[in-house]
């Protein structure tokens, strides 16, 4: 009876989600994980919580045999080997079958070498709260739910089979091309001879069980597109395993196709219906409970996010993010011991032209503190990722203080920090050292404004200032920052708008720094500024250069390498690609140059700045990108 009640509760939860969306529940991300007892394949039991899982993350995969995506995820040898290679003492990966099918669990276990941190569970998830949480974390968009191909004959009879679409980064998905509209299908017996007759405006179906074709699958796709075909279906033979239609070299070669391609089957019924003629194909999706969720190192439920393609790298990146979060909490505790904490925002809504604003009464800063950290986090209205804002947006924090520091210069509305929102992920928390900007703050009334694109969906911002002067910290304190240059349109005129600036150094200082927030955006013919590596050069007296090159820009996995530093993993969109000075879901850390050795006390000196692409002034032929920069000269004493 208890098992029946549990399964009825799961079904009811799924129905409510389909109707009502994702209201708050005890399974919402960030809620404490409930106790759990599971039976493993060897007959033993594990319990959560328990000493075995103390300070550990648990990432769950709930297999569904109707998902082609999950089959490829499990059977990719490189992906599985990489998962094993990245197991650490405090990472556990659990595998279940969505209906408790023991043979499927045995099959999954056979794909991995024995490892105490890979746990294969025979318990039916519908008999535990796992069935409820996977229903609550219902997934939307790519690689979620059950993609399938529905083929209908001229007599109206329809059959369907599993489907896995070609990877997003080198060809469009079928939904983008066709929506749910039925498409005419033609069987192509020779996909390697050009031109292919009779497929104009039709989806070409190629049977992979036929005698071996004398061209590659990518060449088939190119011939189908050149012959006017609207898409390509690769039909598996009865004994052929599902695979992902990928092209490792396409992106590197700038090769992009305008028609979708999918692997389907195996299905004898699909083959016969297509060969009979007058068949149409529809590319559809059945919503299902999510395949993944996690418990982080603090014992809280968390979503997996979006898997762009079937690879266990996404599991590894999620585990890395949990380790970052734990280290962040430790860093915050340590910093708080010697800091004055001033709360600016507490889940304040950031939207529209005004963004998020707060007025704060600041204490005296000069002579009292020598360090400034920003404890900043972003979440979104609603309980799950599905409620979060789409696209990645630059978020800038400006401050205007009506005290002595602001009155003495032209620092009204100066940029104090910068972050990039995550794409449909509700997490994001960073501790950013902006000490050179400390003296943008002064005693009295300060207005803080956090802004992103006014048309973007809202975010909830939380910000606490940590001001400190550790009694044993011998570091100097910054003086009031002197504004240098901002960015601009990254074209042939970029460097002409940044004129040289001359200063006289004070007689008493211990350190001179240039501090700059620099990020590239837009996309010209070279991918600048978002996906091209730009170089930024600061020169002192025409002699000494200080420069930074954002060489991760445009790399396929550049931003995945920043997960350990706080980048939010498994976002929507192309979050993995390296960007020009930034990543989705990450703080923008100031670029710092110590120019002390190039400056003499009481002497005049001249600073010059250039922005370069490939070592020279940018010269795009279309749609020039732009650089967002706030740069300052700061003396410390």
| Class from secondary-structure proportions | alpha+beta
Widest sheet: strand ordering? 6-7-11-10-9-8-12
Q: What low-confidence regions span 5 or more consecutive residues with pLDDT below 50?
A: 9-21, 404-411
**What's the gyration radius in Å?**
28 Å
Strand percentage lies at 25-35%
Shape, principal axes of CA atoms? globular
Spatial separation of the terminal alpha carbons: 74 Å
Number of helices, where a helix is a run of at least 4 consecutive DSSP H or I residues? 10
Question: Could you walk me through the main structural features you see in this protein, from its secondary elements to its overall organization?
Answer:
With 637 residues, the protein is an alpha+beta fold. Helix content is 16%, strand content 32%. The strands form seven sheets. The protein has a seven-stranded mixed beta barrel. A five-stranded mixed β-sheet has the order 5-4-3-13-14, with helices on one face. The chain has a five-stranded antiparallel β-sheet with strand order 16-21-18-19-28. The protein is globular, with a radius of gyration of 28 Å.
């Amino acid at each position: 009876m208890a098992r029946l009640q549990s399964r009825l509760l799961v079904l009811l939860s799924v129905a409510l989600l389909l109707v009502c969306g994702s209201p708050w529940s005890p399974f919402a991300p960030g809620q404490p994980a409930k106790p759990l007892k599971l039976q493993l394949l060897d007959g033993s039991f594990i319990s959560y919580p328990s000493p075995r899982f103390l300070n550990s993350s648990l990432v769950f995969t709930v297999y569904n045999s109707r998902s082609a995506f999950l089959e490829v995820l499990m059977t990719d040898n490189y992906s599985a080997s990489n998962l094993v290679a990245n197991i650490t003492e405090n990472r556990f990966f659990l595998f279940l079958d969505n209906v408790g099918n023991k043979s499927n669990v045995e099959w999954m276990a056979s794909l991995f070498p024995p490892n105490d941190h890979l746990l294969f569970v025979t318990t039916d998830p519908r008999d535990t709260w796992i069935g409820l949480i996977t229903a609550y974390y219902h997934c939307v968009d790519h690689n979620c739910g059950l993609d399938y191909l529905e083929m209908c004959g001229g007599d109206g009879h329809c059959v369907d089979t599993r489907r896995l679409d070609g990877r997003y980064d080198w060809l469009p998905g079928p939904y983008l091309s066709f929506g749910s509209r039925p498409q005419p299908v033609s069987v192509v017996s020779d996909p390697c001879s050009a031109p292919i007759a009779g497929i104009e405006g039709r989806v070409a179906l190629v049977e992979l069980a036929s005698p071996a074709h004398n061209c590659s699958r990518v060449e088939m796709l190119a011939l189908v597109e050149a012959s006017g075909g609207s898409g390509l279906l690769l039909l598996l033979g009865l004994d052929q395993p599902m695979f992902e239609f990928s092209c490792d070299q396409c992106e590197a070669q700038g090769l992009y196709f305008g028609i979708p391609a999918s692997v389907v089957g195996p299905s004898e019924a699909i083959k016969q219906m297509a060969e009979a003629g007058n068949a149409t194909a529809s590319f559809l999706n059945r919503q299902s409970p999510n395949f993944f969720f996690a418990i982080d190192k603090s014992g809280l439920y968390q979503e997996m996010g979006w898997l762009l393609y079937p690879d266990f790298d996404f599991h590894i990146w999620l585990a890395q993010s949990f380790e970052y979060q734990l280290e962040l909490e430790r860093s915050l505790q340590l910093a708080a011991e010697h800091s004055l904490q001033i709360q600016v925002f507490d889940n304040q809504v950031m939207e529209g032209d005004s963004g998020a604003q707060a007025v704060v009464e600041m204490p005296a800063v000069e002579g009292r503190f020598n360090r400034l950290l920003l404890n900043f986090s972003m979440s979104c209205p609603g309980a799950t990722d599905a409620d979060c804002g789409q696209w990645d947006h630059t978020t800038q924090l400006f401050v205007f203080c009506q005290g002595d520091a602001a009155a003495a210069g032209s620092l009204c509305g100066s940029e104090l920090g910068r972050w990039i929102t995550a794409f449909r992920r509700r997490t994001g928390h960073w501790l950013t050292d902006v000490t050179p900007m400390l003296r943008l703050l002064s005693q009295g009334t300060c207005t803080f404004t956090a802004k992103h694109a006014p048309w973007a969906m809202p975010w909830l911002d939380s910000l606490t200032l940590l001001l400190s002067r550790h009694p044993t910290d011998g570091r100097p304190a910054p003086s009031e920052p002197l504004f240098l240059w901002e960015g601009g349109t990254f074209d042939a005129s970029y460097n002409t708008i940044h004129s040289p600036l001359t200063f006289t150094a004070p007689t008493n200082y211990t350190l001179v720094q240039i501090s700059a927030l620099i990020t590239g955006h837009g996309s010209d013919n070279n991918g600048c500024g978002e996906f091209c590596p730009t170089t930024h050069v600061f020169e002192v007296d025409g002699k000494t250069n200080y420069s930074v090159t954002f060489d991760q820009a445009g790399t396929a996995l550049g931003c995945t390498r920043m997960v350990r530093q706080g980048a939010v993993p498994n976002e929507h969109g192309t979050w993995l690609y390296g960007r020009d000075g930034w990543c989705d879901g990450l703080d923008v850390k100031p670029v710092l140059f110590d120019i002390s050795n190039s400056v003499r006390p009481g002497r005049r000196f001249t600073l010059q700045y250039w922005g370069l692409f490939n070592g020279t002034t940018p010269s795009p032929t279309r749609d020039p990108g732009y650089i967002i920069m706030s740069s300052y000269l700061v003396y410390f004493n």
